[in-house]
Write a structure and sequence with these properties.
Layout: E1 2-8, E2 11-18, E3 21-26, E4 38-40, E5 44-48, E6 50-55, H1 71-82, H2 87-103, E7 106-111, H3 116-125, E8 129-136, H4 142-159, E9 167-172, H5 180-193, E10 197-201, H6 205-214, H7 220-226, E11 234-238, H8 244-252, E12 256-259, H9 261-266, H10 275-281, E13 284-287, H11 300-315, H12 323-330, H13 332-338, E14 353-357, H14 369-375, E15 382-387, E16 390-393, H15 401-414
Parallel strand pairs: 1-4, 6-7, 7-8, 8-9, 9-10, 10-11, 11-12, 12-13
Antiparallel strand pairs: 1-2, 2-3, 5-14, 14-15, 15-16
Helix pairs in contact: 2-3, 2-15, 8-10, 11-12
The protein binds zinc ion.
Length: about 425
């Protein structure tokens, strides 16, 4: 397939796609045999598909229900709702989230939620590339911890049949919800099998204080470091309450640190995410939406804008988060975190991309497309989305949208 006359990094380009890969990107016209599909993309720009590096997709079903609460009050409410969920609920909830993700240009997401097999099935059916997880969360109860190890082993064995269109990760929910025995067990289990480790880290001031009280004055980052958990295979969400020493630890171990601005703002956890310091220390900084029960949207474009605006404001520095770093955190850095050859419009990369309609007022000025996309446009300018060489949205139409909405509403009624 040839995408011709598309705006790429502000000049005209032609992109040849073969199978699931970008075969060629050229400023000169590319000749293809008459049998190849040629799509004229005049009036459109191309960007890499977004990688949402931390979310709980099916939480979209709880959106807006528990407003104006702190994280710990909010978690109590959410855990009560989650106790009633089943696989069917997660399947349709994930489909609803995928619908919103596709419509806002996401092609890969790093999920951490219950019934991961159902979530994976939902995402793969819609053409998205999910990373789903077994979640260690044992409320510090040794009996439950032992049961979780057996369940993790079982799910891992099942995941071996999942093929290449999805990833399986191991989640250590957080420092405050998992026994030390299981933190060590989960990290070893993941490392022995080459699986990524997904966690929440240093999300609130309370978490930092509690951890220091329980673990000889160690911060959550120092505590995980003392247990040998960190490495380039770790994806840590939030990373909001970090000392200089914590940042050094995360940088030295090349941890992927995920900024989740909406969730941090809405739960009033904080907003001084130290993007620049983490990047300079050697960490891989990514963006995620967290679950829509706290962030209220899985739209990465909105998270890009909010991340940049808040960085500029609290640092009193308009250059605090340049557009190219912002785009990298929403695309190629997320791909790197998951070990995917994706996130860039480049020869040999997975063909994960979105087309942007440049016909509206958002793009009327001669500014760089990325500036207008992030600061002026909303995700409805994204017309077409491709994941792994296959269109998953064409002209803003995602297959089976009506069915997804109907079935999601039905399972919501059941709980
Ligand atoms: Zn989260």
């Amino acid at each position: 397939m040839l995408l011709k006359n598309v705006l790429w990094e502000d000049s005209q380009a032609h992109i040849l796609i073969q199978g699931n890969l970008i075969q060629k990107v050229s400023r000169e016209p590319i000749d293809v045999p008459a049998s190849e599909e040629v799509i004229d993309c005049s009036g459109k720009a191309v960007i890499p598909g977004f990688v949402n590096s931390h979310t709980h997709a099916a939480m979209i079903m709880l959106r807006g229900i528990n407003e104006d609460l702190t994280l710990y009050q909010w978690l109590d409410k959410v855990w009560a709702s989650e106790a009633k969920m089943d696989g069917e609920f997660i399947y349709w909830g994930t489909k609803a989230a995928c619908l919103e993700m596709i419509k806002s240009g996401t092609t890969t997401f790093n999920d951490q939620y219950w019934f991961p097999s159902h979530a994976r099935k939902a995402a793969v059916e819609m053409g998205l590339r999910p990373a789903v997880s077994f979640i260690f969360l044992d409320s510090q109860d040794p009996k439950m911890a032992a049961m979780q190890r057996i369940a993790c082993q079982k799910l891992y064995e099942k995941s071996l049949d999942w093929g290449t269109k999805s990833l399986f990760t191991i989640s250590i929910h957080s420092v405050y919800t998992v026994t030390e025995e299981n933190i060590l067990w989960a990290a070893d289990f993941a490392r022995d099998r080459g699986l990524k480790i997904h966690m929440h880290l240093a999300e609130t001031a309370q978490e930092d204080q509690d951890c220091r009280r329980l673990h000889k004055g160690l911060s959550p980052t120092e505590y995980f470091d003392a247990l040998g958990v960190f490495g380039p295979d770790v994806i840590a969400a939030h990373c909001l309450f970090l000392s200089d020493k914590d940042i050094q630890i995360l940088g030295d171990h090349k941890v992927s640190c995920v900024h989740n601005i909406n969730s941090n703002l809405k739960l009033a956890s904080g907003y001084q995410f130290r993007f620049k310091e983490l990047q300079e220390a050697g960490a891989n900084v990514c963006l995620g939406t967290d679950g829509a029960a706290s962030s209220n949207t899985v739209d990465m474009l909105e998270h890009m804008k909010n991340s940049a605006m808040v960085q500029k404001a609290w640092r009193k520095d308009p250059a605090a988060l340049p557009l190219n770093d912002l785009l990298a955190s929403a695309t190629v850095n997320g791909a790197k975190a998951l070990g995917l050859n994706s996130g860039e419009i480049k020869e040999g990369k997975l063909a994960d991309l979105s087309l942007i309609d440049l016909g509206g007022t958002e793009f009327i000025s001669p500014a760089p497309t990325l500036a207008n996309l992030v600061y002026a446009a909303h995700s409805d300018v994204i017309t077409d989305v491709m994941a792994g060489g296959k269109w998953i949205m064409r002209n803003r139409v995602v297959p089976n949208e009506a069915e997804i909405l109907r079935e999601a509403r039905k399972v919501l009624k059941q709980i």
